[in-house]
Amino acid sequence: MPEAGVRLRERRLEAEGYVPGAPSAVVAAEDAGTCAHQACGRCGRPGLDYRPYVNPQERQGGVGAYRPLAVCESCGHAEEF
Length: 81
What we know:
The chain is an alpha+beta fold. The protein contains 2 helices and 6 strands. The strands form 2 sheets. A 3-stranded antiparallel β-sheet has the order 1-3-4, with no helix packed on it. Strands 2-5-6 form a 3-stranded antiparallel β-sheet, with helices on both faces. It is flat.
């Protein structure tokens, strides 16, 4: 089940206080575009899904800490970028 590895990674982020969301609409648009133009590092499938996480309790540059994931829907590989 490809999604199992992604879900494990998401649970780890959530355990660290991260919640789904991007720091801004501009960042979300830029990073979603980046993911859409990337290929999977495992299977080579083009076009990755963008799954952003922020931690409103951790501050970096005046906004919550940000940890985006690029996820392959085919094989379930996920990379933080």
